[in-house]
Amino acid sequence: MEKVLASIITIGDELLIGQVVDTNSAWMAQELNKIGIPVTHRVAVGDNWDDIWEALDQEAKRASIIFITGGLGPTADDITKPLLCEYFGGKMVVDQPTLAHVIHIFENILKRPMIERNAKQAEVPDVCKVLKNEKGTAPGMWFEKEGKVFISLPGVPHEMKGLMKDHVLDLLPTYFKTGYLEHQTLLTYGIGESFLAERIAKEEAALPEHIKLAYLPNYGMVRLRLSAFGYEKALLQHEVAQHFEILKKAVGEFLVTDKDESMETVVAQLLKKSGSTLSTAESCTGGYIAHLITSTPGASAYYKGTVVSYDNSIKTNVLEVSEAILETDGAVSQATVKQMATKVREIMQTDYAIAVSGIMGPDGGTAEKPVGLVWMAVADKRQVIAKSFQFRFDRQRNISLTATNALNLLRMLIVDNHSTIL
Asked: Which residues of 83-195 form beta strands (DSSP E)?
């Protein structure tokens, strides 16, 4: 049986010049995976008639389902709808339910007059199935040609997601035998991608042809993902689970989690399971660690707050880092972060604390303390553990690496303290 594949074409000059980041394709691919439809290609094209036409022709050769997002607005550069009308050999007509919906939005929700340009949103090719857009004025459109399905959706993310959930994801399995996609992911820390590949070479070689292993390195960590496709769901899940357990054992002490989740999520779960609380003191990261922690739902149950001691006066006046230490050891030092961690834990009365201080760049470094040098500490009621790192990237990546490594240092301390219950 031939596997059903999808392609995604995103339209807009703003995507090609980097003004807007394409988050639509990533979300769509995730949702399509859930119903057993892998995305084989993602293509971005500008607001150019010939380029869009060529992309439609090309992707129709590669996939059974072609998604098109963007170019459906009321302005002159939105050419997707007239192009699709010509591509599928139709003529433009007014879809009365869509027109009524547009009028309702302007009269009852926006409470402003509707101009002719807005009314044109209700014009659609007569050869498409109209998909009602509950969250906006541009309807989705479903076309069929030579056994292929073409689905045009607005580029506005919340409108695209609404149409996918309300119409597309339920309709596709009625048109195609989709099968099942199974993924299992684990996260490792403390071992590079090439060394990890050497470590699990035997296990990787033993994988059957239909189970693929992917290496996904990021900020000092490596995710390993097993992926498989098949038509018998229970059998597929069992087979992937067996190989996943073998992979976990091979990874050994470098395993952080056997789920596809971030370091901050792992730490959040450990804090909740152990009934512990956390505070942070940040210098070089400027509150980024606090941001990561509070991005996880339910963080108020275990996270008390942070002191962003960017200036030395805050380190001395709030965190009581001694001026003598700042004078002799400097702000980026073992002694400083130890005092920062100790004091913020005391101030906020938490079980654990994280403290970081470093030089993120691009300037500010010296021969003794170069750009990328970071000291971090984690503390509990018994001890303070400090560690230094020398990162070598741009400012934002150095900040991200600092946050990830600090959270991992905390993770190891919590696991050590609560190994019997975690």
From this structure: 92-94, 123-125, 129-131, 140-145, 148-153, 180-189
Mean pLDDT, rounded, for 234-262: 96
Distance CA 257, CA 187 (A): 5
pLDDT of residue 92: 96
Contact of 189 with 267, CB cutoff 8 Å:
no
Mean model confidence pLDDT for the chain: 95
121 touches 102 (CB < 8 A): yes
DSSP 8-state class, residue 368: S
Checking if the pLDDT of 396 tops 80, the result is: yes
Q: What is the pTM of this model?
A: 0.81
Contact 391, 398 (CB under 8 A): yes
Domains located in the chain, CATH noted: 6-175 (3.40.980.10), 180-257 (3.30.70.2860), 263-417 (3.90.950.20)
| Backbone torsions φ then ψ of 113, nearest 5 degrees | -65, 145
C-alpha 48 chain-centroid distance: 29
Whether 289 contacts 280, CB under 8 Å: yes
**Average pLDDT of the segment spanning 166-181:** 93
What's the Cα-to-Cα distance from 223 to each of 33, 207, 323, 415, rounded to whole Å? 18, 17, 43, 20
Helix (H, G, I), strand (E, B) or coil at 375: strand
